Amino acid sequence: MKFVKFRSRRHAVPAIKRLLKPAKQALIKAPPLRSRSNKPLAMDTEDLLNILTYYHLQEFSSGRELIQALQEDDYARDLVAPAGGIKRSTFFDTVNDRGVEQLLYVFTELQKQVPGTLPSQYSDLGNLVAIDGSLIDSVLSMHWAEYRSNSRKAKLHLGFDINHGVPHKLFLTKGTGAERPFVSKIIDPGQTGVLDRGYQAHHLFDQWQMDNCHFVCRIRKNTKKTILEQHPLQENSHIFFDANVLLGTPYINQTQEPLRLVGYVVEGKEYWVATDRFDLSAEQISLIYKLRWDIESFFAWWKRHLKVYHLFARSENGMMVQILSGLITYLLLAIYCHEEHDERVSIRRVRQLRNQIRNEVAQQAAELAAEQAIAMQNQKRRCRPKQRKKLKKAYATF
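Request: output the structure for the sequence above.
Response:
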């Protein structure tokens, strides 16, 4: 447990406060939550962030369970909930109608801290961003989440920073939303997008090169290839093809700019990967595509351990608030695990943090009971004998 010195005394810093510390600076300049009437809001941006981070960290299964904990649990009421308490209507009204602008600002500011805080891997391969989409099951009343006539789903389009192991950018659409247009919105110039076959589009390969956005994208093996220049292959390598090519059928969907095409075999399965990274070896290109699996692992871990898809809101705004807060929680955990343990995020460390919070709850209750006992003894000493008898009778009624 960490301590701070205040007025010549050492005070324990609660684990939840240490976790939220990187967001403190962002909260200073974060846009304020605004009321839509003359009645002031009962919570601010910091309160909203504290509550939603606590929600994801403690694995609550519903918003109502969260509110009950904020009202009845001493630890949550003292360290997480607003000073004046929280009502269910206040929380759900805020989440369904507000909060996206504020949480998006905090998420962006935390992203700026990542390069200077978290170690970078694969720096020799460049700035790698894996891109993928994930469907979110919704209820039929969520009409904005169009998918099929008998079901509703939303889709999260996410960029994942492979070098630092954290989410990068996100967009939320209805379930039928196309994925390819979001690549240009997620990748910044100079970065390399790592993509699966669903993102293959020859006109976009040309556009991304014009925008100085690199890519490593798996393509269908039956794609027509026009070979411009072949590169030598190493002996006993899993690489069986390496050449500069044009992809597609001439005058129909052929690329205008030459591409690098690498073919390789892993456990008897062929992979064909197109890229504009002419500066790397074929082995490095195959490694980059292998690293795309990091985003799949992230989605699986994030959904399972932070409960981000237990929906407590039905509006598009509310779902975006929930997803943003889940991503912020993961970013905070990444920074916390590195600073406290010099490790990447793992369920072991998250469980350890949860247990620490539970221990602090028990310690807080024990300290409160001790303070009450000391206060009672001091009051007895100050009382006259007759007053002591009355005080003794009074305490006996509890």
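The CA atoms of residues 233 and 394 lie 90 Å apart.
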